[in-house]
Amino acid sequence: SNPKVWVLIGIGVAGVLIVAEVQRRRLKSKNRVKLQFGAFVERFELLPFAQPPPPAARFPLAGLTFAVNDNFDVKGYVTGNGSTDWRKTHEEAGKTAIVVTAMLRNGATCVGKTVMDELGFGILGENRSHGTPTNPQNPSHVPGGSSSGSAVAVAAQLVDFSLGTDTIGCIRVPASFCGIFGFKPSHGTASAIGVSPNSQSLDTVGCFASDPSILHRVGHVLLQLNLVEPKRTRRIIVADDLFQLSKLPAQKIANVVAKVTENLSGYKSPTSMNLGQYIASNVPSLKSFNDDSTNQQKGIAALKALSSVMLLLQRYEFKTNHEEWIKSVKPKLGPEVSSQVHEAMNVKLENVKNLYRVRVEMRAALQSLLQDDGILVLPTVADFPPKLNSRKSLPSGFYDRMYALLSIATISGCCQAAVPLGKYDSFPISVSFMASHGFDKFLLDTVLDMNSSLQQEVLNSTSSALPYVNGNMDEAELLKEKGNAAFKGKQWNKAVSYYTEALKLNDTNATYYCNRAAAYLELGCFQQAEEDCSKAVSLDKKNVKAYLRRGTAKESLLFYKEALQDFKHALVLEPHNKAAAEAEKRLRRLLN
């Protein structure tokens, strides 16, 4: 009978209904995000700036949609940095990141924030806080990180392009794993204001796109580039030694690039080089980071040292930026990120200046090599994307090979674009183009200019086997002896040619394969050497030299566990073989 009671009851019921509706909408929003390949942390809409009336030119990004990593500030939203613990301990952003505003100012619409590896660490793309985005190309495999959600959103065609950050490969790796274009600009050329830092000396704001023309337009807006630039004849340089680290069909990719440049105007014939040896000779400060416990070829050792510099610099600067927060909050992180953060928190450097000295020398070395007209061609990644939750069973040397490739542009600060080139063994493959620091427009123009011809050539290319010729056994032996003589005279290429001719006459002789492998090892062609040794072993199970040489090739390719098995096998066949015993001891020490 008391009206006030009914009013209170009404308010209570209304409150319950409001709370229930809020919960329903949140659940619906979460489910919608999960359905979209798990790419988004949250969805919203930031409309572009108003298009001026004619005769003003149409905005370059008009009609395009984009998403951004969870480490970009958007006014009114909390920047989560990929971590729920980070999100809980930080306030809403007061301003929007400069690069996000630039996209809006040029006509694009922002539709949300994407999942990333926690705190920007990791290259696999797995996230404990928000779940791992689904790789549209291979759902049972990782998407790559740290800019995982941004790559997936583009690959799944949820947006036209996306913005991410690249510290040690965080754009290049997911671009490769998801089969899309990824652009890491020259360090310091894109504004990082309003972007959570991981390591300022390495952090670079970049972008993803599935179309090279969109990548070209976004890159121009991102870096505020001039539309017109003087035309230059392009020099294409293929880093042969880096393709030896990769599981990609190296010769096929080199042939594709060569044929494309032959048919395009303004390109010189491609040249090849051993980039690792060039770095070893031109970056003297790297010597202090060499690992003397390994028996690695000079160029491989230099790349391994460069990787160490990259990781040490990242850990040092991350610790400087976030040590206080890590110690006070003690965030719950995924296994890969947790391991990286632990390493960072325990890093102790006696001479930090050496890290920055390597950075300066590396940029100068690449500038001297590429100048204003050079494009370096290299594999984007070394391995195919691993399966989800397979961190403990990754191939031996997975990170060593990956970091060796990624550290080149990371430490030099050069710009790099990952370009998809179809599929191989059902996985997307990617080749990268790299240009000197500051020559980002030159690189973007090159990608746009070459892409259609590259894709057409990939479709046209077919693998052709060497013809088998039945020949006289004595003639094959004569060719083998000529190969041996060339080998003793240190004419490695000539030796390979003679052994190859011998194999055309008799491809069932294990010695021919084993001898050619020895010549390949001297040339630094470790992948070919491994293949020849495997063929020799299949023909002669007791060929000790084949096991030794295959072990050497695998060690040089950073497959330490597999190399150890070959040296063990050689010792079973020859228990007193000193070379096998020393190699086994060295690798055991390295793996422990």
UniProtKB/TrEMBL annotation:
<keyword id="KW-0677">Repeat</keyword>
<dbReference type="Pfam" id="PF00515">
    <property type="entry name" value="TPR_1"/>
</dbReference>
<dbReference type="InterPro" id="IPR011990">
    <property type="entry name" value="TPR-like_helical_dom_sf"/>
</dbReference>
<feature type="repeat" description="TPR">
    <location>
        <begin position="476"/>
        <end position="509"/>
    </location>
</feature>
<feature type="transmembrane region" description="Helical">
    <location>
        <begin position="6"/>
        <end position="22"/>
    </location>
</feature>
<dbReference type="InterPro" id="IPR013105">
    <property type="entry name" value="TPR_2"/>
</dbReference>
<dbReference type="Pfam" id="PF01425">
    <property type="entry name" value="Amidase"/>
</dbReference>
<dbReference type="InterPro" id="IPR036928">
    <property type="entry name" value="AS_sf"/>
</dbReference>
<dbReference type="InterPro" id="IPR019734">
    <property type="entry name" value="TPR_rpt"/>
</dbReference>
<keyword id="KW-0802">TPR repeat</keyword>
<dbReference type="InterPro" id="IPR023631">
    <property type="entry name" value="Amidase_dom"/>
</dbReference>
<feature type="repeat" description="TPR">
    <location>
        <begin position="510"/>
        <end position="543"/>
    </location>
</feature>
<feature type="repeat" description="TPR">
    <location>
        <begin position="544"/>
        <end position="577"/>
    </location>
</feature>
<dbReference type="Pfam" id="PF07719">
    <property type="entry name" value="TPR_2"/>
</dbReference>
<feature type="domain" description="Amidase">
    <location>
        <begin position="58"/>
        <end position="444"/>
    </location>
</feature>
<protein>
    <recommendedName>
        <fullName>Amidase domain-containing protein</fullName>
    </recommendedName>
</protein>
<feature type="region of interest" description="Disordered">
    <location>
        <begin position="126"/>
        <end position="148"/>
    </location>
</feature>
<keyword id="KW-0812">Transmembrane</keyword>
<keyword id="KW-0472">Membrane</keyword>
<feature type="compositionally biased region" description="Polar residues">
    <location>
        <begin position="130"/>
        <end position="140"/>
    </location>
</feature>
<keyword id="KW-1133">Transmembrane helix</keyword>
